[in-house]
Amino acid sequence: MVKGMTVRMWHRTILAAILLIVFGFGAVTYSLVKLQLIEGPSLQMKAADQQLRDTQLMAKRGTIYDCNGKELAKSATVWDVVLVPAQVADKKRDTIATGLAKILGLNKEDILKRSKKKKSYYDVLKHKVESDVRDQILKFEEDNKISGGIRLVENYKRYYPYGQFAATVLGFTGTDNQGLAGVEAEYDSELTGTNGRLVTAQNAVGTDMGFQYEQEVPAKDGDSLVLTINEVVQHYVEKYLAEGIANNNVQNRGCAIVMNPKTGAILAMAVKGDFDPNNPFKIADSTIADTISKITDSSKKADETQKALNTQWRNKCISDTYTPGSVFKMVTASAALEEHLVTENTTFSCPGSLTIMGKIIHDWKTFGSLTFEGGICNSSDVVFMQVGALLGIQRFFKYFDGFGLTEKTGIDLPGESRSIYHSPESMTALDLAVCSFGQSNKITPIQMITACCAVANGGYLVQPHIVDKIIDSNGNIVKTASTTPKRQVISTDTAKRMCAILQKDATNGTAKTGYIAGYRVAGKTGTSEKVELEPKKEYIASYCGFAPADDPQAVMLVFYDEPHGPNGYYGSPVAGPTFLETMTQVLPYLGVEPKYSAEELKKLDGTAPETIGMTLANAKNAVAKAGLTAKTYGSGNKVVSQVPEPGKQIPKNGTVVLFTDNASAKQTVTVPDLMKLSLSAANERAANSGVNISVKGAALTSSNAISSSQDLSPGTKVAPGTVVTVTFSDEDKVF
Fold it and tell me: In whole angstroms, what is the distance from residue 589 CA to residue 231 CA?
């Protein structure tokens, strides 16, 4: 019995063991099958995810060109320095940390710590290093036989080849290449492009895995912009604007715009002082920077720094509102002519002031009697208060609105401000009186020049724009700016009559400081009081004009905020010379040919003949034939040098100095002070000092002109015969 039971139990044990082995092996087999055949691909992907290296492929930001294809902003290649901890060999860890810390100016211990993150494949140590740093790293790797752990990934850095040029137009970018100001901000989405990706799989030691894969999504470079800005025109505008600020001790910056009146294209737009977009967070004004550096309170220092930066970044042409002063009179005058309320010969009484609603408003001068045309050329506020009354509130506002002064111009730049003005419902007779001559209502410079363009181009309000077209990375045109006028504001006949009146103003009126012989300039000066600063007296001096008056090719507005120089604060002597100097260069560059009147030909400068190498006798004859006087230095018989140089403009009856030996050519004379003199007195003083003068401005058309600026400072040592350019203003007509 016992024996039988023992045998049965043994059999059962054997059977259980067999079953256990079978089922156990089956489970293992099933698991292996499941792992390899069923779950294998997904597990491989999980492993890959843990070993993926995802590299961003940076898109190249689009280039910004001027209208002639010159690069104003472009993306230069730089490199991101990337640490790959998973590939850093232990024996090289300290070497890598030490070397990179020295080259990049980083903390060694921090790099060491980051290098020990074995599962990391992409740790950026420093963004956007220049090629010299990259070269140092490559040499460091070669010298120390480092084959892994460091990567140099191509990136892009924004670069502005012309430095502090058109800065407030171009703007600048941030650390991530995003547009933060100007065109860079306005067209950021077009310029940016789309970054790509490169995804690869590697094992823990950085070698290829058996199931390695690589997938690339290429970067799409950003579109490029072709601006309406002309680099040459912009250069002249910035040059003479900066000189005007210095000469007139302007306290609150200045700005200028040159615009094509027919298309609305902005040929130049400048604000001084501005900044270098390559280093926009540096305060460009050294005086302001020095003052801020001395502030000890950190909070106040930060506030003043930000204030200074915001000021230098601000585009005064579009973001600042101002009372335009007498420049605005061209709008009021156009409205009155269009409504047939006046003609050029309508007469007005000008007793020197008018009383409106109990308030006495003074003119700048008592005229007695003036025609409508004379009221414009003499810039009489009394005449324009009467013209405003003839218009009435509703008609005045109709044209104020029609000229686009109640709305933003829509220029394609960020930060355009809205105008501040009296609505017809709120306007009183007193408001109308002061608004008629450009006070009270506040507009932007871009609005003012756009309104002037409507007068210049036959009566059409155009859309100002800064970008002419957008092109993709293959050079295909994506978008072109529209040049279709918004509306016609005044008739072609009214516009033509206004142009003729403004030409007379620039020839014999208050705007004659902008007169350019041969170019039939039309212009209007402006002097406006900053009433918001009362009781403090501060002014804005401006000049707005165009040429040729009968077929305008370019309109220019010059604007100086708070001038404190020797020329006072009136628009004529302060802003007029800047218009004159700039347009004297711009008009010939744009291909506008001068057409001189007989009277102008009598006063035009001559040209110094070529005499170098001639005998003294022949040289004197050549000078005499040119209508000039010869003066000789030296004991030689041949001319070795001359002043002015051959081809240089020189006033008629001026002196050409001939040097006959090298010793005599080293002689110098001192430039005299030629300021606040009549033309005859300036000529006499210049002749006595041994220099010539070239005359610009009001002296060409007026006998009352007084010199207001000279291009060479008094006391400067120059060669005998050197030409000093002197600009004249009409002292009787400076408003």
Answer: 12
The C-alpha atoms of residue 290 and residue 298 are separated, in whole angstroms, by: 15
User: Could you tell me whether strands 359-362 and 266-272 are parallel, antiparallel, or unpaired per DSSP bridges?
Assistant: unpaired
> CATH number for the domain including 494?
3.40.710.10
Q: What is the pLDDT of residues 539-592, one digit of tens each?
A: 999 999 999 999 999 999 999 999 999 889 999 999 999 999 999 999 999 999
Q: How far is CA 333 from CA 202, 339, 572, in A?
A: 78, 10, 19
Pair 440, 394 in one domain: yes
Cα distances (angstroms) measured from residue 546 to each of 180, 500, 522, 587: 34, 12, 5, 10
Return the DSSP state at 222.
P
Which secondary-structure segment (H or E) carries 420?
Answer: none
Average pLDDT taken over every residue of the chain: 88
Do 639 and 531 belong together in one domain? no
Query: Do residues 523 and 557 lie in contact, with contact meaning Cβ atoms separated by under 8 Å?
Result: no
412 with 531, same domain? yes
Q: Which residue has the tokens 């030689």?
A: 636
Supply the pLDDT for residue 711: 87
Report the alpha-carbon distance of residue 124 to residue 176 in Å, rounded.
Answer: 14
- Domain containing 366 equals 319-595
Ramachandran angles phi, psi of 480, nearest 5° = -125, 140
Task: Output the six-digit token pair for 73.
Answer: 């902003």
Are 192 and 82 members of one domain? Answer: yes
Task: Note whether residue 271 is domain-resident.
Answer: no
Fill in the DSSP letter of residue 331. Answer: H
Per DSSP bridges, beta strands 64-65 and 224-227 are parallel
Print the SS3 string covering 513-554. HHCCCCCCCEEEEEEEECHHHCCCCCEEEEEEEEECCCCCCE
The token pair that represents 311 in the structure block: 């000021």
Reported as a single tens digit per residue, the pLDDT across 392-416 is 999 999 999 999 999 999 999 999 9
Give the strand pairing for 692-697 and 522-529.
unpaired
**Residue burial 280-306, b: 16+ Cβ < 10 Å; e: rest:** beebbbeebeeebeeeeeeeeeeebbe
- The CA–CA distances, whole Å, from 607 to 21, 510, 517, 679 equal 117, 30, 16, 20
Pairing of strands 655-659, 629-633: parallel
d(CA 547, CA 518): 10
Q: Is residue 307 part of a domain?
A: no
- Whether 420 maps to a domain, the answer reads yes
508 and 490 share a domain?
yes
Q: Is-contact 720 633, C-beta < 8 A?
A: yes
Q: What is the pLDDT of residue 207?
A: 47
71 and 86 part of one domain: yes
pTM, 2 dp: 0.82
Cα–Cα distance measured from residue 480 to residue 225, given in angstroms and rounded to the nearest whole number: 10
Is-contact 622 656, C-beta < 8 A?
Answer: no
Beta strand extents in 119-253 (DSSP E only): 123-129, 150-159, 196-201, 214-217, 224-227
Residues 541, 525: Cα–Cα separation, whole Å: 8
Find, among 538, 455, 539, 549, the residue nearest to 509 by Cα. Answer: 549
Q: Is the backbone peptide bond immediately before 672 cis, with ω within 30 degrees of 0?
A: no
Do 573 and 487 fall into the same domain? yes
d(CA 334, CA 348): 17
> What CATH number has the domain bearing residue 67?
3.90.1310.10
B/e letters for 207-222, b = 16+ CB within 10 Å, e = fewer, are eeeeeeeeeeeebbbb
